[in-house]
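ugh ok fine here u go
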Amino acid sequence: MKSTTFTLNTTQINSFWQPTLESSEALKGSYFNLNNALLNEVLKIQQLGLVIWSPDSNEYGLLLGELQKVCGWSNELLKKMGPENFLSHLVSSSFTGLCLLMKHMNTYLTSIPENQLHDFRAIYDYELVGNDGHIRRICQENSILTLDKNSKVQYFLSCISNISNVKRDGKQHLFLTGSSKEMLIEIDQLTNVCTELQLLTTRELEIARFMGKGLQSEEISELLNIALTTVYKHRQNILQKLKMQDTSEALHLLKILKMI
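structure:
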């Protein structure tokens, strides 16, 4: 029997619930009491966590998936902990970096027209100390779930995954979409300097997708009907723009940030 790989992200999950203007009480009835067994099992199988949280309160509205395997904290402990205490378990360099990245995220949010806020996505990473004492690198993808009557973010929907296999010591990344201009930001944890990286061109992303599928440069050249030297040049540009030297790690990062 042929197997099929099924992946989830916040765009797909948000298709269940469209961002609307709702009161907190309505949210508690429609979201916080959600008991979707199928969704929960899919999240567990893929080792993903789904979280609904408010930027204005120290509580989680909903926790789904087996978060113990994802971030080292059980759903029950996270519920008691709340977002503020969760942040206190970040590795200190990651906490400092995340604070800087969140400034960029907030500035970016203000640039998005009100009628396009539902397109907003923020994907970033940080290192977290789990309840078992182990450090895990976490990827978090945020989208806006609901707005209040003043078009202020009321609740975020976050998809959380464990990306400890990605070796980016001393670096954190933030990829922002939803405005007319996408942004990719890298922070150096040693200097706390944030750098906006140059985005890949459409052709570079196309080649990166083929590389991610295991195609060799010769195959990509033939498939796209371009010179082999042109493929090599695009591959070099991809590494230079991402400030990386290892092609496999560059592809890992692009996949995590959902750029390919």
